[in-house]
UniProtKB/TrEMBL annotation:
Name this polypeptide is given: Helix-turn-helix domain-containing protein
GO biological process terms on file: DNA-templated transcription initiation
GO molecular function, one term: sigma factor activity
InterPro entries reported for this sequence: RNA_pol_sigma70_r4_t2, RNA_pol_sigma_r3/r4-like, WH-like_DNA-bd_sf
Boundaries of every RNA polymerase sigma factor 70 region 4 type domain copy: 50-94
Organism phylogeny: Bacteria, Bacillati, Bacillota, Clostridia, Eubacteriales
Domain of life: Bacteria
Pfam families attached to this UniProt entry: Sigma70_r4_2
SUPFAM superfamilies: Sigma3 and sigma4 domains of RNA polymerase sigma factors (SSF88659)
Length: 118
């Protein structure tokens, strides 16, 4: 039995669109809007600059274009396991980058001086 596809992650184009929408949402306070906008920008930066070319290709095709691992493998001439590995490594790098952004944001609010460790 096939699992239903989960919701896709934001497309590169969606990140810009969401950033713009976040700025005009009246129900969120200014701090949350600024943080979400910064996090979306950081995520886009991570996709553009922190991934290898092959990771970026596989990640973009999978999540931004909605292609299956099998389709990507056929298009790029790779094994499905190789494509899956590239996608997993890309997600790990992006998540790591996002965690650092959250850490920096939270510690800027707490007045983190670099002398104490969390």
């Amino acid at each position: 039995m096939l699992r239903p596809r989960s919701k896709r992650v934001f497309l590169v184009e969606d990140i810009d669109s969401i950033s713009a929408q976040v700025c005009v949402q009246a129900d969120e306070d200014n701090t949350n809007r600024q943080f979400l906008t910064a996090l979306l920008r950081a995520t886009r930066y991570a996709v553009d600059h922190e991934l290898t070319e092959r990771q970026r290709q596989c990640f973009t095709k999978r999540y931004y274009e909605g292609r299956t691992v099998t389709e990507i493998a056929g298009e790029l001439g790779l094994d499905c396991s190789t494509v899956s590995r590239h996608i997993t490594l890309a997600r790990q790098r992006i998540q790591s980058h996002a965690r650092y952004c959250v850490f920096a944001y939270r510690n800027s609010l707490d007045g983190y001086s670099g002398n104490n460790r969390s």
